[in-house]
């Protein structure tokens, strides 16, 4: 089923505009720590398979903090942290911080300050193309039986493969799904929308009934996540980011339609939606202020957790709506895991064993299954492990949801160039056709200047 394809919660930071909501949310949870996160330390300690180093060795881990990331970082840090002469350090950052710190560390000619780095397929392709991270095929083959790596779905490995080599150790799969207020939908006679037209109709009816403050909430932060939203509708409308030669191809009828669809959704969303990351929309949903959202499945558990959400027991899950009946959902798939920097001064085999033995451990993945879809086939097929949001992820995959393009210049280069133009089109400060044309032209110039295109 990992046709169930991560991670990732993208823009994870909070916003000043949500300060009041955050305070209210903490009043619901009773503390600042995310409730419902599992303690994987015990399982990870049993799984850790690293021999004590001959001398004191410090392993530095770079990983952003998010509901579906923290359990695996904990597995590495706490699982092997008790090994003699081995110290494992991790200082949590937000997603943007991870991206910035990773690029600086990996591109430096000096030894990397980090030895294991959390990554997803969008950034991995850039890292691999530049030789910044180590291929892991030899270690995967050597430890396949020891760690049961054959149980990991081939599509999970594929998400971390670049030009025929595997560069990452997958710990989860993910897709953006529809999470909606079933209680409100039932009250006014609505079903989960399966198409764009049905979603707009549902938003209109929720608004007319004054059932909820905001019928819609989307993760469209213009500094990062907006490109993910555009990707969802672009691919659902049959469009592509690039052509066969790698040149921008989103300045197309499909691209224009995607922008028009997104713009028509804005009246049903909070006015500052173009500043929202995943954490912001999740918090609004937990507060009961949003009727439906398309968000990473890894946010499903916190939204439905009675310890931190006012809508626990009131939500349901479905694949993201498609642009046309029977088409692929307006969504995205992603893969998360850990990579090993080429410029780490530590033994790469030791780092591989440290990460692979803990984060891919069946027991660790089983405990983390409430917040992350495991890439282990045996766990996905186990009814005792299954979570209520998994069918939506599985159906999304079966209906053709796509990851970001497998090119080394998608994230952050393409996003950083295109996002400002998307924002201008959505806010009305630029005509959508003109914005797409300008974005494609600037991106092509950037790709040529950086040597990706001739």
Description of the structure:
- The model is unreliable at 1-37 (pLDDT under 50).
- The strands form two sheets. Strands 1, 2, 3, 6, 7, 8, 9 and 10 form an eight-stranded mixed sheet that branches. Strands 4-5 form a two-stranded antiparallel ribbon.
- Strand 4 (161-162) and strand 5 (165-166) form a beta hairpin.
- It starts with 18 loop residues before the first helix and ends in a 5-residue tail after the last helix.
- The protein is globular.
- With 454 residues, it is α/β, with parallel strands linked by helices.
- It has helices at 19-29, 41-47, 70-80, 95-107, 121-129, 137-142, 154-158, 182-187, 196-208, 226-236, 253-265, 278-286, 300-304, 348-359, 362-367, 377-380, 390-398, 410-427, 432-449, and strands at residues 57-62, 86-90, 116-120, 161-162, 165-166, 169-181, 214-218, 290-296, 315-319, 333-339.
- It has a domain at 36-174 and 334-398: Periplasmic binding protein-like II (D-Maltodextrin-Binding Protein, domain 2), CATH 3.40.190.
- The protein is built from 19 helices and ten strands.
């Amino acid at each position: 089923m990992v046709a169930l394809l991560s991670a990732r919660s993208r823009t994870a930071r909070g916003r000043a505009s949500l300060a009041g909501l955050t305070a209210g949310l903490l009043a619901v949870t009773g503390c600042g720590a995310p409730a419902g996160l599992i303690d994987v330390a015990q399982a990870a300690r049993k799984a850790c398979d690293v021999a004590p180093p001959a001398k004191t060795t410090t392993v530095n881990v770079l990983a952003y903090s998010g509901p579906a990331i923290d359990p695996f970082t904990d597995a590495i840090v706490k699982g092997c942290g008790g090994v003699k002469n081995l110290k494992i350090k991790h200082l949590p950052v937000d997603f943007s911080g991870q991206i910035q710190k990773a690029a600086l560390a990996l591109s430096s000619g000096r030894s990397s300050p980090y030895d294991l780095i959390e990554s997803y397929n969008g950034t991995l392709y850039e890292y691999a193309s530049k030789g910044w991270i180590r291929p892991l095929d030899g270690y995967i083959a050597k430890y396949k039986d020891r760690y049961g790596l054959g149980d990991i779905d081939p599509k999970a490995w594929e998400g971390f493969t670049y030009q025929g080599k595997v560069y990452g150790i997958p710990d989860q799969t993910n897709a953006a799904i529809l999470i909606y207020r079933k209680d409100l939908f039932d009250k006014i006679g609505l079903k989960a929308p399966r198409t764009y037209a049905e979603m707009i109709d549902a938003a209109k009816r929720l608004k007319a009934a004054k059932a909820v403050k905001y019928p819609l909430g989307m993760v469209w932060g213009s500094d990062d996540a907006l490109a993910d939203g555009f990707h969802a509708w672009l691919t659902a409308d049959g469009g592509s980011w690039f052509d066969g030669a790698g040149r921008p191809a989103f300045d197309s009828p499909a691209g224009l339609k995607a922008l028009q669809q997104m713009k028509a959704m804005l009246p049903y969303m909070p006015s500052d939606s173009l500043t929202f990351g995943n954490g912001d929309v999740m918090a609004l949903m937990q507060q009961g202020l949003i009727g439906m959202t398309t968000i990473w499945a890894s946010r499903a558990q916190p939204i439905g957790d009675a310890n931190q959400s006012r809508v626990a027991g009131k939500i349901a899950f479905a694949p993201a709506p498609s642009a046309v009946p029977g088409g692929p959902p307006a969504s995205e798939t992603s893969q998360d895991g850990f990579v090993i920097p080429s410029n780490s001064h530590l033994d790469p085999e030791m780092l591989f064993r440290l990460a692979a033995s803990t984060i891919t451990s069946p027991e660790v993945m089983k405990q983390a299954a409430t917040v992350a879809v495991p890439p282990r086939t045996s766990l996905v097929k186990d009814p005792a492990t299954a979570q209520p949001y998994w069918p939506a992820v599985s159906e999304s995959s079966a209906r053709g949801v796509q990851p970001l393009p497998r090119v080394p210049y998608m994230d952050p280069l393409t996003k950083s160039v295109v996002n400002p133009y998307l924002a201008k089109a959505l806010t009305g400060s630029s005509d959508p056709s003109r914005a797409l044309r300008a974005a494609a032209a600037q991106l092509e110039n950037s790709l040529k200047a950086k040597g990706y295109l001739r």
